[in-house]
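Researcher: Re-running this chain for the archive, since the previous output was lost when a drive failed. Same request as before.
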Amino acid sequence: QYASSSYPQGLIQPKYIIYPRGDDEVIKAIQYAKKNKLAVAIRTGGHQYSGASSTYGNNIQLDLSNTYDDLRWENTECTLVTVGVSYSLRVFHDKLAAKHRFVPHGQCSHVHLGGHVQTGGYGQLGRSFGLLADHVQKIRIITADGEPKEIQRTSPNDKDLFFAVLGGSPGNFGVVTHVTIAVHRDEDHPLSRGLRIFYPYDRDRLKRLLDVTVRMANDNSFPADYDYCVSVLSGGSVIFPSLSPNIDDTMRTKFPGIFGKDGQFLWPAMIVVYAQWANLGGQGQSYNSAFFDEIKEAGGEHSTFCDEIKQAGGDLMGDWIFSNVREFEKPYIKRVFMSNSQTLEKDHWTDNVCDRIHEIQGNDDNGCDLAVQIQHFGGNNSRVYQNNDGSTAISWRDSNICCILDIFYGEKKSALKTARSWQQQNDACVGHPGAIFCTEDRRVLWGSHDLDLDQEHDHYFDNAGAVLPETKYKRLCKIKASVDPDGVFTPNGFCVGA
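Model: Regenerated structure tokens:
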């Protein structure tokens, strides 16, 4: 479990861990749990930040990391594929790439499809192509009655369960085994290109790059083709070598002095920029370099690495995946917030967040490391926004910026106190009328930092499309009671209706 380093041992400690070989053993586990009044947690990759893919007490964890690892193309055009939830994102991408196909998804190679798709499937191409869950046409699920079912996006009889599974909280409604996904063809986006730049960390440079993010957010008509993400990683992160092929060799050539006498290179703190132009209009669309030029100007000179990649969408998607399991081998306190604010510039949010980052990054003696990622998803042309057809429970689609603020703390006595204090400052930037980032406390299921979904549901679920007085969460609770009346899939507090 990714979260086992950072949460009390008793919360992530199932009595039984079962590695089923297929449907029969999954069904037997469900039947055993019902008979003995136990609950079942479902794990595919184990990356849920707060450990919600695990359980405690006498309960069971179903580990599906190798159970459903099959893939089948559903048509001769190879535009519809059924895939098992046990695939990691790296393997899944490579399977599609072999047919020159792709779909938007996250960057983390070791995240598996099961939890990723049920929590939306946010990623680097989200603004231009939408979420991974937006592409799901059919779901195969084994519910608490032990019956495998296929539910379709377009079927009136399936609309409630389909809605709940995608965005309701992963594993709460049954064991998802397969999803059928509509994919994109490389040939439809042959001119797409990406921009990848690494800069030595500098507070003022970071502010200029984030000002570009805010200018995008302020322009609701910004073209759909563009995605933009700015990250900050403290020195020594194990992720750096996986961000670009042969990057260590490049650094050795450009900056031989930093490798030292032993030839071992410890990465300094860096700003990492990813930007894409998706070529949504295809072969006949002309590329305008103005946005990439704006980014380069904001970053200034002295980049350690700058790579403008001209290749089709699927190849570009593959380049954005990094291979490491986690950013730092330390415990953490994580936060992910969304914002729909149109006053970030007026409120000087970029100054505020850069000051908070520099509070940690500018002090080498605090025992803490940062992994920060700030990405623009919004605007009227964003596919995250446009794809909100009410068929899923995924919330906050009108947000323009996603802000991930993760702090990892070491063994130094004061490090945990520093990390907690820093996150308290971040928490103060959301959820009240004077909040500088967002007046609402908008969270996402994949980035949760608590284990009490029922108490905190207003932070995870909006009411877009809800027929009041029935809120989106009340609808989810009704669906949960219908398909899982005995609470078989309620293994912890991060569950609908728990």
